[in-house]
Amino acid sequence: MSDSIKSKCRLCGSEKSFVKYTIENSEIRRCSDCTLMWLNPMPTDEDLEKVYSKNYYENKELASDDAQKTYGYSDYLSEKLYKQIGFQKIVKQIKSMLQANDQELSLLELGCGLGFFLDVAQDAGFAVEGTEFNKYAVKWIANKYRFPVSSKKLDVFEDQSYDAICMMDVIEHLRDPFDVINESHRVLRNGGILTFTTMECDSFISRLLGERLEDIRKIHEHLFFFTKRSIKKSLKQAGFAVEKIHYTGHTFSCGDLVERIAAMVPLIGRPCLHLVNFFHLRNLKLYVNPRTKVTVYARKI
Questions:
Q1: What is the pLDDT of residues 61-107, one digit of tens each?
Q2: Which of 17, 111, 122, 263 could form a disulfide with 7 if both were Cys (CB 3.0 to 4.6 A apart)?
Q3: CATH topology for 3-63+72-300?
Q4: Can you tell me the distance from the alpha carbon of 129 to that of 265, in angstroms, rounded to the nearest whole number?
Q5: Do the Cβ atoms of 113 and 132 come closer than 8 Å?
Q6: Residue of 67, 76, 290, 91 lying closest to 200 (CA atoms)
Q7: How far apart are CA 148 and CA 136, in angstroms?
């Protein structure tokens, strides 16, 4: 692959890009025009299949300062309760934007993980369906829930067949997120809502931590990195009107949080970790919003 192709922006087509971060043998390039960032070189399909396994949800070495071990979740199942509290707010927002009365609404989640978001949406009255690349997750959901989940690609879904499409921390994992956004526009009914969460690379904390930030260091799974500007541009090009973008936080156990901080900023995190262990605070739950992640709501027009 030539340097000109490597540096060409998938969103705006500009060939003016530069290396923003270098992590091990990978670089993260940034478009000088639209601010989109992407991983170079991209992992192969075989590389991704190795990452998306059962270990993806139980990676005990996530907080390591070794980028080779920075992927997935330390204990995804233990986060279910707190993730679903946040998901309830998102589902409520989607439902209010659709302004349905008594009619049943339909919702498709792309990259549904272990089904925690779909579980919440179904409880809220949506008819739900999910897609998931991780074969372990598809089997796990089949044994746990009754809603349909498969490894189908979005291009097999019928035109205007869903009221809402959601991607929770997924769009940055996609080989072609812009094709998925375009296909989502096709699959959504008129006035339908596309919702997704992703990292926001231009927030103060994101810029301050830079390549030390966990989401940046996940070079085995994160292929694209967005700013508010590139998010708005990609949605507008696909025929969406952005209705709301807000920063989203997360509830962590105190032990998990300080271990992650120690991996990013050792001088601060390691002393905090000693204090947490000394005072037996590892299981204390804390809600933190460093303004590094956004939830986006866009309407098909």
A1: 887 778 888 999 989 998 999 999 999 999 999 999 998 666 789 99
A2: 17
A3: Rossmann fold (3.40.50)
A4: 40
A5: yes
A6: 290
A7: 15
